[in-house]
Amino acid sequence: MEWADDLRxxxxxxxxxxxxxxVPEEVGEEEMEERHRLIQEAFxxxxxxxxxxxxxxxxxxxxxxxxxxxPWDEEEDDEEFKLEWEGVDDDEPDDDEPDEEDDDDExxxxxxxxxxxxxxxxxxxxxxxxxxxxxxxxxxxxxRIYWQVNGEDVPTNDGAxxxxxxxxxxxxxxx
Length: 175
Description:
Elements: H1 2-20, H2 29-46, H3 48-60, E1 65-69, E2 80-81, H4 104-118, E3 120-127, E4 132-141, E5 144-149, E6 152-154, H5 158-173
Antiparallel strand pairs: 1-2, 1-3, 3-4, 4-5, 5-6
């Protein structure tokens, strides 16, 4: 029950912080940084990439790619993370060649700006040549931390997250 105890402590700290804060409609830079810090703490505590990495290992035999998206963290931008598992070989070559640019680049940049304003951090598992995607989003809205799996709200507890991940995976593969 170590995980459950960690989550309970984390929930208490979040409730204390959110009760002490009032987010104005217009958020200044300092307030935005504080909001990002709270989301980053929640992200670091939950470690959503570990759930997705385990799904990749068990369900996809390591064929998926894990990405983290923290829009306010310039060091994390466009960085892909692959977690290695004992006994699993990842023989896929790295593609270091730049992608061809297209007309969607401007739309993508606009979407990135919108995501940064939405206060969301994401861990994403992509497989099947990008046709399937499983995303865990952690965000801050109305002074509370929320979790989403593929855009669907999930209660902030481990059991609900696990069930939501299984359901979303089944939806992605069409069963």
